[in-house]
Amino acid sequence: MAQRCDRAEFLLSWQPYFLFESAPDEGMPFVEWMRNVAGEEAAGKAQRREGTLFELCDEMGLNLDADRRLGNTVYSHCLVDYAGKISPAVQTELVEVLFEGNLANGELISDINFLLRCAEKVNIDKEGALAHMQNAEIQQQIIAAYKQTVQEIGVPKLPFTIMTSNRNPELKLAFSGDMPPSTMAAIFDKLLDSSTET
User: What does each C-alpha distance from 140 to 52, 82, 136 come to in angstroms?
Assistant: First the structure.
C-alpha cells in the first residue's frame, strides 16, 4: 500500500474471522489446539516456534508466545467493531495493541479486562466499549457478518484481504496475505487500473 499511495488513498477496515469458533472463554493452549486441528507434527513445530506464522511474526519484530491460550474472540471482534465506528485509524491502532498483547504477551483474548485495557491504551471510552462487547444483538451481527463473508468469498487461510474501490464497488479482489510483495502489488495495480477506466 505504501508503494501505491501516489495513486490512491487506502482505507483499512478490519473484519471478523473466527479462527476457533468454539473456543472456551478460559481458552485452550495454542499447542494443544494445533495438535487438534493439524496433528502432532504441527504441534511439535509450534512448541519449537517453527513454521510460517512464527517466521512472519519474527519479521515484524513480534515475539509470538507459543505458550499462550486461544480463547473465544467474540468480545474482541465486538471491540474492534466499536473502534471502527470511531475511525479506521483508531480501529487499526486497537488491532495492533490486541495483537501485541495476545500474540506476544500471552494475554487471553476472551478476557474482558484485557480488552478494556487495550481500549484505554487507544483512548476508547471503556464504558461504551464494554456495553458494545456485551450486547447480544451486536455479537450476533458480528457472527452473521463473519459467516456471510466466508460464504460469499471463502477464506482459505489467514491473513486474508478483500479489496474494493469507491469508484468500482462491484469489483472485489480477495487474496491471502502470505504471498510475495510483487504479487500483492500486481493485485493492487489491477484494482487501481480498473477504478480509473471510463
Answer: 32, 14, 6
Write down the pTM of the prediction.
0.77
Whether residue 162 lies inside any domain: the answer is yes
- Give the number of domains in the chain: 1
Instruction: List all residues 6 or more positions away from 144 whose beta carbon is below 8 Å from its beta carbon.
Output: none
Q: What is the dihedral of CA 166, 129, 57, 3, to 10 degrees?
A: 20
Instruction: Tell me the residue range of the domain where 197 lies.
Output: 153-198
* Residue-wise pLDDT tens digits, 126-185: 999 999 999 999 999 999 988 887 767 666 666 677 767 677 667 666 666 666 667 777
User: What is the C-alpha radius of gyration for the chain, rounded to an integer number of angstroms?
Assistant: 18
